[in-house]
Each structure stands twice: as C-alpha cells, then as structure tokens.
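Box 3.1 — From sequence to structure: Excisionase
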Amino acid sequence: MKCMYCQGKMEKSTAPLSLNRKGYHIHWDAIEAWVCSQCCEAYFEAKEVDTIQKALSALEQESEGFLKV
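Predicted structure (token representation):
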C-alpha cells in the first residue's frame, strides 16, 4: 500500500490522534494505523474508526448533563 500524499510505503504501526469536539480536546497516544514510512501520514482501518466514533458518542452522552460556564 502507498501513501496518498507522498507515495511512500505504508507500514502497520500506531499513531496518535487528537480531536476537538464540542469544546472538548480528546487525545489518544497510540491507535493502530497504517503509517507512511516517509511522511508519517496515518490511515485508520474501519474497526479503529468505529472505536473512535463509539468513544466520542459515549463522551457526548456523558457530557450532556454538564453545566457550561
């Protein structure tokens, strides 16, 4: 598999991911991903994307009762 940006070789590894969503900053240190050996661009497979989406949904449900100041 080749990187869409630089055509470098993709290798199975882990990558960090940071997201800002509804006023929250969410960070994972290491999620399984395909990472480019040249530019370090990361691509996540469907199962990792599903896990990320489930975590974000759970955060939304938990934070609905929080009072914003």
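Summary of the box: The mean pLDDT is 91.
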